[in-house]
Specification:
With 325 residues, the protein is of the alpha/beta class. It is built from ten helices and 13 strands. It has two domains: 168 residues, Peroxisomal Thiolase, Chain A, domain 1 (3-Layer(aba) Sandwich), CATH 3.40.47; 149 residues, 3-Layer(aba) Sandwich (Peroxisomal Thiolase, Chain A, domain 1), CATH 3.40.47. Strand 12 and strand 13 form a beta hairpin. The relative contact order is 0.19.
Length: 325
């Protein structure tokens, strides 16, 4: 098959910053409590009227510029999101229109925090088989719209943002392997119960705050460490590589303790783990691609480096991807 790689990256973070000190005024919490348990110091929130597609477009424009491509060069757009502009049409359709990428087949996928890796894998397959040439893969979220700001256990975790990657055929390196997984028996650990066909919007659903994120954090924590380590090992094996070959890991930025426990399980030192959770919190599908974009721009990733992307999320779903930069 053709070699497919990332030829451009972009990100967009809203201007508004919500710090732990701000949250202390909203719920019964403290900066020390949040930092110790999560590693998060602040997160970004959208302005009034700003939707997921608005963030996605700005990240996409930066990625296209980085790839030295125009919107008309893109023939596939995949937006990974759990906070679409509306139930339908797909947020990707709004992105296509706003970008002027009229040649692009466009659709959304919902794979929570592993969304970017799912979308990346789909795009790679399409390009490798000759269906499309240039794909725009976006992870974008406005999690503040589904965060219960009265729940101190969850409201400290999430933020808004978007990241984008342009995929195309490359002469060397590129994506060496991908691995995806699902365990539908764990759907009750992280979910939004209201708003779908099972619990449509009603006065009752609103009064029970069913349209916000619900999470069983302790059980999810234990599973996440094992899942991320296992996914990494599976993807590395598929690429005929070992943990010692990794130059940098870009993990999903859900919780600092999860990330460090995963690194320990893999025998990786902290300097090989890229972190931005302290600045943005958990941005679901936007977290991994935003961190990858920042790592490249900061010079943490150089040509020829072996990079591992590793994520898990509600579903439960997970994914890992090995890239030679």
């Amino acid at each position: 098959m053709k070699k497919i790689g990332i030829i451009g990256l972009g990100k967009f973070l809203p201007k508004k910053v919500l710090t732990n000190a701000d949250l202390e005024k909203m719920v019964d919490t403290s900066d020390e409590w949040i930092t110790t348990r999560t590693g998060i110091k602040k997160r970004r929130l959208v302005a009034k009227g700003e939707a997921t597609s608005d963030l996605a477009v700005k990240a996409a424009e930066e990625a296209l510029k980085d790839a030295k491509l125009k919107p008309l060069d893109i023939d596939l757009i995949i937006v990974a999101t759990i906070t679409p502009d509306m139930p339908f049409p797909a947020t990707a359709c709004f992105v296509q229109e706003k970008l002027g990428a009229k040649n692009a087949v466009s659709f959304d996928i919902s794979a929570a925090c592993a969304g970017f890796l799912y979308a990346l894998t789909i795009a790679q397959q399409f390009i490798a088989r000759g269906n499309y040439r240039n794909a725009l893969v976006i992870g974008a979220e406005v999690l503040s719209s589904v965060t219960d700001w009265q729940d101190r256990n969850t409201c400290v975790l999430f933020g808004d943002g978007a990241g984008a990657a342009v995929l195309s055929e490359v002469k060397s390196g590129g994506i060496l392997s991908t691995y995806l997984g699902t365990d539908g028996s764990k759907t009750g650990l992280l979910f939004i119960p209201g708003g779908g066909s099972r619990n449509p919007v009603s006065r009752e659903s609103m009064s029970h705050r069913m349209h916000y994120i619900k999470m069983q954090g302790n059980e999810l924590f234990k599973l996440a460490v094992t899942i991320m380590a296992s996914a990494a090992q599976t993807a590395l094996k598929a690429a005929n590589l070992e943990c010692k070959d990794i130059d940098l890991v870009i993990p999903h930025q859900a919780n600092m303790r999860i990330i460090m426990a995963m690194a320990k399980k893999l025998g990786l030192p902290k300097e090989k783990i890229y972190l931005n959770i302290d600045r943005y919190g958990n941005m679901s599908s936007a977290s991994t691609v935003t961190a990858l974009c920042e790592a490249v721009k900061e010079g943490r990733i150089q040509k020829g480096d072996i990079v591992l992307l590793d994520a898990f999320g509600a579903g439960l779903v997970w994914g890992a991807c090995v890239i030679k930069w």
